[in-house]
Amino acid sequence: MQIRELKVEGAYELTPQSFHDHRGLFLSPYQQELFLDHTGHRLFPVAQCSLSRSHRAVARGIHFTATPPGMAKFVYSAQGRALDIIVDTRVGAPTYGQWDSVLLDQRDFRALYLPVGVGHLFVSLADDTVVCYLLSTEYVPANELAISPTDPRLRLPLPTEFDLVLSERDRTAPTLDEAERAGILPDYAACRQLSLAWEAA
C-alpha cells in the first residue's frame, strides 16, 4: 500500500495493492497496521459503515461534524468515479482553510483518511457512483453541519462541464468565514484531543 499525506494536516491518501487473475481482482483498502507503520498512529475504531449512490454531477458537501462528538472518516469509491475534496474547517489548524483533492475510481482504488473536524465534499463524475464510508462515531443528523462548496474564498476545483446537483442544505450553506463568525466550526485543539483519546484506548 502507498500512503501519501495530503495538504490538509492529518489527512492521507491510501492506494492499496491489487491482485489480479482470470477471475478479476482482490484488494484491501482498509489496513490498520500498515497505516500505523506509516503514520505512527492508528485509524479510529469503526462505529458505523455507510454508503451513498449518486448520479453524475451530484455534489455532496462540504460536510463536517460538530465537535464534540466529532467524526473521523475513511472514504473510498466501490463503483464509478468521484472527485473527492478535503477542506480544513478546524479553526486554529496549521492548514485551516486549505484543501486538497483526490480522484476516487476503480483504476487505482484510492481511499482517504479524514481526521476529526475536517470538511468533506465529493462530486460524482459518473452515474451510479458508490462512495463508502467508515465512521468513527454514529451518524446523528443534528450534529452534521455544512459550508458552501461554491465559497469563493476556497476556490475549489469543481467540474465545469456540468451544473452541480446540490441538496437544499448544501446550496444554502454558509461560507467558511460565515461559519467561523457563527462559531460552528470545529476547534483544532479539541479535534486533536478526540483523536488522541482513541489512540490511547
TrEMBL record:
GO cellular component, one term: cytosol
Annotated InterPro entries: RmlC-like, RmlC-like_jellyroll, RmlC_Cupin_sf
Residues the record marks as site: Participates in a stacking interaction with the thymidine ring of dTDP-4-oxo-6-deoxyglucose: 139
Alphabetized GO MF terms: dTDP-4-dehydrorhamnose 3,5-epimerase activity
Catalytic residues identified in the record: 63, 133
PANTHER family the record matches: DTDP-6-DEOXY-D-GLUCOSE-3,5 EPIMERASE, THYMIDINE DIPHOSPHO-4-KETO-RHAMNOSE 3,5-EPIMERASE
Protein name: dTDP-4-dehydrorhamnose 3,5-epimerase
